[in-house]
Amino acid sequence: MLSLARRSTPVTSTAYRALSAWSAVPAGPPDPILGVSEAFKADKDPRKINLGVGAYRDEHGKPYILTSVKKAEELVTSSNPDKEYLPITGHAEFTKNAAKLAYGADSIPLTQGAIAVTQSISGTGALRIGGAFLARHYPNAKIIYLPTPSWGNHTPIFRDSGLEVRGYRYFNKETVGLDFEGLKADLLAAPEQSIVLLHACAHNPTGIDPTDEQWKEISNIVKEKKLFPFFDMAYQGFATGSISNDAFAVRHFVAEGHQVALAQSFAKNMGLYGERVGAFSLTTADPEEKARVDSQLKIVIRPMYSNPPLHGARIANAILANEALYGEWETEVKSMADRIISMREKLYNILTHDLKTPGEWGHIKSQIGMFSFTGLTPAHTQVLAEKAHVYMTRDGRISMAGLNSGNIEHFATSVDSAVKGNL
Ligand code: PLP
């Protein structure tokens, strides 16, 4: 055997490649949002602006750690906590407080002990747990309707969970507003008992939310068609600056007697992006049903990642469980929302009044939350990146949080030139 090995020719790197189990794996497309960040990083121009990623930036364009979060973290570390595993469904006090934040302290299923809730790997993980649970246990056709457009990760999350993904109209290109008639018509035409994904507030990517009256109409259609509402609430507090206003849709649906699924994220409203703090919940009929649902949530989660991370949940809970810190956090959420709103006003004024940029820009002011769908075309976005070092997704979505008084002039004048065709 030894002599055989000695005689065999050395395997070249080309031969290794031919032998690889992965030689037929095709290269996938880059992630459209993270791809924008890559291009931004590679750009060396000092004027560069990244409006692609949905993360809050302060007035100086820097990542922002909330003071309430810093204090909560100090509280957590000063108590010298252990690093033991959490249970499968996570930090029990955190999930209880997360549910209270979303549903409201006086929510009937909450006070009755009928909400099954689990910690999740932020909002994405909550959606994925929900998708997997529905794929396994939803007793009707496993079809989920998403708004068109929706956050780009929704389709793969639900498709990979085993649900059939369909769309309902949401955006009206002509008015750069909500296509409410299209939305209603599509939900009315959906097969009874389909699942419908609703952005609870600060719709991503359009920044357009239904009004309270429109939510009431949507609730009636959902009831009439026996649809199952699945709320994605990734921006509670970011839309209006008020935690309870932003929970209007969820609370209204629950008060109307709908059973709901809910994905929550603390990435944006607490700035805990990389800590991956979230929750998934389902309202159930009563505590006995809740206990059965809880047991099945554990069975879904255990083979996925066993149990969730500890640190971020402790921080979030330290805020939610402490009246003074909670108050401070609410003020900070409002100040983040207000800064975004002030950038909307400023951008609108520069484009409309100062530069007289062709087009109607009222939607910049009326849209809500972190994002604005500007109406810029893929060609505009390309020239803005190449010539003005301004980066955004190809659909013309910008993160308003990436604008500040230091860069808004450069952004607005670049948009103006792009639209006038002379960049
Ligand atoms: N849902 C929507 C609509 C989002 O925009 C995002 C993030 O951008 C998420 C869910 C999930 O975010 P995360 O997993 O960071 O909480």
UniProtKB/TrEMBL annotation:
Belongs to the class-I pyridoxal-phosphate-dependent aminotransferase family. Its cofactor is pyridoxal 5'-phosphate. Residues 47-414 form the Aminotransferase class I/classII large domain. It comes from Lentinula detonsa. Transmembrane segments: none annotated. This is Aspartate aminotransferase. It comes from the Eukaryota. In eukaryotes there are cytoplasmic, mitochondrial and chloroplastic isozymes. It catalyses: L-aspartate + 2-oxoglutarate = oxaloacetate + L-glutamate. PROSITE patterns: AA_TRANSFER_CLASS_1. GO terms for cellular component: mitochondrion. Homodimer. Keywords: Aminotransferase, Pyridoxal phosphate, Transferase. Its EC number is 2.6.1.1. NCBIfam families: PRK09257.1. GO terms for biological process: L-aspartate catabolic process. The keyword Transferase applies. Pfam families: Aminotran_1_2. InterPro entries: Aminotransferase_I/II_large, Asp_trans, NHTrfase_class1_PyrdxlP-BS, PyrdxlP-dep_Trfase, PyrdxlP-dep_Trfase_major, PyrdxlP-dep_Trfase_small. GO terms for molecular function: L-aspartate:2-oxoglutarate aminotransferase activity; pyridoxal phosphate binding.
